[in-house]
Amino acid sequence: MKNIAIFASGSGSNAERIVEYFTDSEQINVKLFLCNNPEAGVIQRAERLQIPLVMFDRSAFKSGEVVKILQENQIDWVILAGFLWLVPKNMVEAFLNRIINIHPALLPKFGGKGMYGHFVHEAVVENKETESGITIHFVNEHYDEGGMIFQASFPVLPTDLPEDVARKGQVLEHKYFPEVIEKVILVNR
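Structure (tokenized):
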């Protein structure tokens, strides 16, 4: 059994979808949620889903305390599902090629520091893109630059608002993120 920890800073809809997907799995277990935002919706989801939740601040994240928590909980893989902080070097090294992130655009477009959530969708519309999508990738020490695992796209219509782009993207996130996580973990046992 491989244990995963899910990091989230927001509502946690992807985190919940991942838990649902692996509920009956005999190979992958969602063992822990970690959150850096005391106002995040993922906190209520963790309680409802009965997944232990660890809250942490920037100091604990950068110092390695969070890595120790992951190791104490025998975490094999780290999943970033709407997590907004840059992962520190100590965590990248401790979980080398075992941290997976999802980004709400087709990288390398609209990636990097400050490009998350509505900022991405607004940029897609402002740049009159004809398509957008999602990118699932490994995490390194730089925003959105780790090795690409998977992309899926959808058309962006001239009439689409950022909210429309966000909604279309979330459909792809919920469909593909758990499946891709499973494939990557099972291939890299």
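Residues 121 and 162 are 5 Å apart (CA to CA). Helices lie at 13-22, 42-49, 58-63, 65-72, 89-94, 117-126, 162-187.
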